[in-house]
Amino acid sequence: MSVWCRRLRYVWLNGRIVECENARVHVLTHALHYGSAVFEGIRGYWNGSNLNIFRLRDHMVRLVNSAKLVGFNLGYTVEQLVDATIEVIKANNFKEDVYIRPIAFIGEGGISLDITGMPVEVSIAAFPFGKYLKAEGVKVKITSWRRIPSFSVPVMAKASGIYLNSIVALREARREGYDEAILLDWRGYVAEGSGENVFIVRGGVIATPPITASILEGVTRDSVMRIARDEGYTVEERDITREELLVADEIFLTGTAAEITPVLEVDGKPVGDGKPGPITMRLKEIYQNIVTGVDVRYKSWLTPVY
Ligand code: PY5
Question: Is 90 a catalytic residue?
């Protein structure tokens, strides 16, 4: 039995709800060999009476775009993927916080690198999920591995193969006792974390690297920029130098899994006074109220399941 099937009963696979045990692939699956897959990470928040999925449609739009960038067609519309997500959560009857993992991959189509005409499989799985990074804050290392440049692969795509870059970067950081890695881009400017976007605060101004820094265009990054601007903060999308990380008043990471996570140390040096900063904590609180549906100003970002 798959260890996953202790956490979920049903998976949506190629248009149908199947038993978790039957959501399997063959060892000769193309995507397993070459990383020819695109995926998403989405969260659903249980607030005691309903499960709200955060920016579901936006994630599915990115999934469809990722496939387009890699060069295959998903075969499902954004609307169909949205409905399928709700269907699979309902089938499992989850009444707690969940993480949703849709993936579209090249299946059993041979070993050629030419994916033209190869079968595309799509699955959506959801399972109970808590924190991804330490909620109180993380210690990061600026890793020696640079973020893959967008002139080598379309890094705007959330494509599986690209994650080998994140895996080696995080491996290096963890081996040296850090919690997370920050990758610089090919030019030496700050790109992002292994699975998160990066924000800094200096003199009350919030800044985050632009999409031209080979980053993944995060949905949480977009949400945080909106929220911060609505709160009256100035938010800049601009190149950030490595040394700015070392003199920033505050740094935080954003991502579906990481949500808003304060950075306490960079390369062993404290960020500010080494405690989560006030702007970080304020944004974190607002974000929490939004995803649980307490803050109704951003209700359009939530899709209720039940
Ligand atoms: N950058 C990278 C490389 C990411 O993998 C992610 C998300 C982000 C930025 C943030 O994007 P978003 O805000 O749209 O989530 N990472 C996934 C997640 O679910 C997988 C992490 C293991 O957070």
Answer: no
Query: How does pLDDT run across 24-40, given as a tens digit for each residue?
Result: 999 999 999 999 999 99
Query: How many domains does one find in the chain?
Result: 2
Q: Are residues 151 and 271 in the same domain?
A: yes
Does residue 298 fall inside a structural domain?
A: no
pLDDT tier, 173 (very low <50, low <70, confident <90, very high otherwise): very high
Tell which of 128, 160, 183 closes a domain: 128
Taking only Cα atoms into account, the Rg of the chain, rounded to an integer number of angstroms, comes to 19
CATH at 200: 3.20.10.10
| Residues sharing a CB contact under 8 Å with residue 174, sequence separation 6 or more, in sequence order | none
Q: Is residue 302 part of a domain?
A: no
> Is the model's pTM score more than 0.90?
yes
| Inter-CA distances, 175 with 60, 168, 225, 295, Å | 34, 10, 33, 40
Expressed as residue numbers, the domain containing 223 is 138-291
Judge if 68 and 157 occupy the same domain: no
Residue 42 Cα: closest atom of ligand 1: 19
State which ligand 1 atom lies nearest to the alpha carbon of 99: 19
Catalytic option among 90, 134, 141, 158? 158
Do 161 and 67 lie in a common domain?
no
Last residue of a domain, one of 96, 128, 160: 128
| Residue 106 pLDDT level (bands cut at 50, 70, 90) | very high
Residue 257 CB less than 6 A away from ligand 1? yes
What is the per-residue pLDDT across 208-250, written as a single tens digit (0 to 9) for each?
A: 999 999 999 999 999 999 999 999 999 999 999 999 999 999 9
Kindly give, in sequence order, each residue whose CB lies less than 8 Å from that of residue 220, ignoring residues fewer than 6 positions away.
196, 197, 254, 255, 256, 258, 259, 260
Ligand 1 pocket mutation, candidates 60, 162, 197, 227, criterion most atoms within 8 A of CB: 197
